[in-house]
Write a structure and sequence with these properties.
InterPro entries: MCP, MCP_dom_sf, MCP_transmembrane, Mitochondrial_Carrier
Keywords: Membrane, Mitochondrion, Mitochondrion inner membrane, Repeat, Transmembrane, Transmembrane helix, Transport
Subcellular location: Mitochondrion inner membrane
Number of strands: 0
Helix content: over 70%
Strand content: under 5%
Bound molecules: NG,NG-dimethyl-L-arginine
Family: Belongs to the mitochondrial carrier (TC 2.A.29) family.
Number of helices: 9
GO molecular function: transmembrane transporter activity
Distance between the termini: 16 Å
Radius of gyration: 19 Å
Order of helices and strands: HHHHHHHHH
Largest sheet: none
Length: 288
């Protein structure tokens, strides 16, 4: 099994992640808290209350973990395509796989990454939702002191299953949308590149950016549900399951609730995925 795709996936995931984390924090807060009037209000309040550091809460952990998940995504995707089409990453420009194969390989990568991602994403969401400023003398300490403390507290309070809260919503979110992600990327690259040639860096940037937007636009409704289910363990409001969360959110807040965070998700998706694909392609090319 070729491993360079896993390594390139890890490095490119980490680069994309640093760029996108402030957007991600604003998104998670908008989706799970009703104290903000919109993106600008959330940014201003975060900055006033917590300084620039507030936007980077919970980032050190995703760098190690979510970048690793990106490596699972890209590694599984490429190896699934190898199994389906018997072509390596190098051969795929000359013998492009069908879009059906790209979609199946993307869904496989999405499905497997969701399982690795679930506990890490839960911890990230819980830490991002701590709005207390950095510990000051006399002020009550935040509920979680960091990622390890957060994982241990969830484990203690909710048991091992607590660490997989929201995992179903995450799997449903990621399986089809990562198929869409890779199909969009391939389609845009092929449309703007002569047959058999390597896409230019500009093409990879634009195709990667739009692939990110397409996948996040379709993922946003389940992203909202996933974030709410992940936070439910902390709040009084407990959902009986995914469907219950969807129905009660829609009843209480209207259908618009499924699009909370759509603008910020899309704004974040372009730079993050442009950089992710560019560095991924570049690394694989430089390794021969
Ligand atoms: C759930 N969806 C839509 C995705 N995971 N899409 C793929 C983008 C991955 C990238 N690391 C990012 O965070 O944008």
């Amino acid at each position: 099994m070729p491993v360079e795709e896993f390594v390139a996936g890890w490095i490119s995931g980490a680069l994309g992640l640093v760029l996108g984390h402030p957007f991600d924090t604003v998104k998670v807060r908008l989706q799970t808290q009703s104290t903000y009037r919109g993106i600008a209000d959330c940014m201003v309040k975060t900055y006033r209350h917590e300084s620039l550091l507030g936007f980077f809460k919970g980032m050190s952990f995703p760098i190690a973990s979510i970048a690793l998940v990106n490596s699972v995504l890209f590694g599984v995707y490429s190896n699934a395509l190898l199994a389906l089409t018997a072509t390596s990453h190098r051969q795929r420009r000359a013998q492009p796989p069908s879009y059906t194969h790209v979609f199946i390989a993307g869904c496989t990568g999405g499905f497997l990454q969701a399982y690795c991602l679930a506990p890490f994403d839960l911890i990230k969401v819980r830490l991002q939702n701590q709005t207390e400023p950095r510990a000051q003398p006399g002020s009550p300490p935040p509920r979680y002191r960091g990622p390890v403390h957060c994982a241990a507290s969830i484990f203690q309070a909710e048991g091992p299953r607590g660490l997989f809260r929201g995992a179903w919503a995450l799997t449903l979110r990621d399986t089809p949308t990562l198929g869409i992600y890779f199909v969009t990327y391939e389609w845009l690259c092929r449309k703007s590149t002569p047959d058999g040639q390597k896409p230019s860096s500009a093409t990879v940037l634009v195709a990667g950016g739009f692939a990110g937007i397409a996948s996040w636009v379709t993922a946003t409704p389940l992203d909202v549900i996933k974030a709410r289910m992940q936070m439910a363990g902390l709040k009084q409001r407990a959902y009986r399951g995914l469907l219950d969360c969807m129905v009660s959110s829609a009843r209480q807040e209207g259908l618009g609730v499924f699009f909370r965070g759509l603008t910020i998700n899309s704004a974040r998706a372009f730079p993050v995925n442009a950089v992710t694909f560019l560095s991924y392609e570049h690394l694989l090319h430089s390794w021969g």
